[in-house]
Amino acid sequence: MDRTNQKILQVLRNDGRISNTELASRVGLSVSACLRRVQELERQGVIRGYRAVIDRDQVDEGFIVYVAISLADHARASLEAFEKGVSAARQVKECHQITGSVEYLLRVEVADLPAYKRFHTDVLGALPKVRGVTSYIVMDSAKDERA
Fold first, then answer.
1. Which of 9, 75, 85, 116 is the most buried (most CB within 10 A)?
2. In this structure, are 14 and 36 located in the same domain?
């Protein structure tokens, strides 16, 4: 990863819809050289895709909760069953297996507190092997660079 590729990635992180001509200008390359580099970064899987930044409030997903999940056991079948259940839940935007006192950290996006309560009861309450659930409601975000 050379300095030019790092510059390309930084510009694309901030504006994934930038034209190749403008991108080339910002990173100091010819249009064709810039396009070749971007295509190579895509081919290598460094650039895995492009996303739209959505106003979560406009789509009833502005209520964000991080949820720490502990499981009753650590058997592979339990982990796989939990992950399968979470993958099917549209409210779960991220699921990370983590170290520490809990097994998973989820990022859940719903419309409001009543919607989260329904999710907590109907989805989390129905998942296999869940021993504990701790919810952390996001009050404000000083920095959020995800799309």
1. 116
2. yes
Domain range for residue 9? 3-43
Q: Which of 96, 94, 23 is nearest to 64 (CA)?
A: 94
Distance CA 134, CA 32 (A): 51
Look at phi and psi of residue 46 and say left if phi exceeds 0, alpha if psi is from -120 to 50, else beta. alpha
Burial 36-45 (b: 16+ CB within 10 A, else e): ebbeebeeee
As a whole number of angstroms, the distance between CA 75 and CA 77 comes to 5
Prediction pTM value: 0.80
Residues in Cβ contact with 128 at an 8 Å cutoff, skipping those fewer than 6 apart = 78, 81, 82, 85
Residue numbers of the chain with a pLDDT score lower than 70? 147
Residue 50 lies in a domain: no
pLDDT score, position 147: 61
Dihedral angle of Cα 128, 129, 131, 132, to the nearest 10 degrees: -50
